[in-house]
Amino acid sequence: MTLVIGGAVSAILGLIGLIFWWSEFFAIVKGGAPIIMLLGGILAVYVGVDDIQEKLREERQSQEESLEKAREEIEIVKAKAEQYREELDKLKEETHRKQ
Predict the structure, then answer these.
(1) Does the reported pTM lie above 0.90?
(2) What is the C-alpha separation between 47 and 53, in angstroms, rounded?
């Protein structure tokens, strides 16, 4: 309860102070706006660069996964080709034996 009362009193005093010292408040806002814009711009550039780096990492990881999948498929095809070659050799031997 005391927190609510303290907050209300602080808000009322802040409003009264803003009314009486409007020109000083406005001078602070005018002086602080460029600093806030500068810091906000720096933060936006940082976040943008970080986002680009994250996208590049994700793309690189996706390419590595695709490459690994392709390598696995190549190994499977090689194994099947070897199996077919062995079957072909076996059939050739059987054909030579029959003749």
Answers:
(1) no
(2) 10
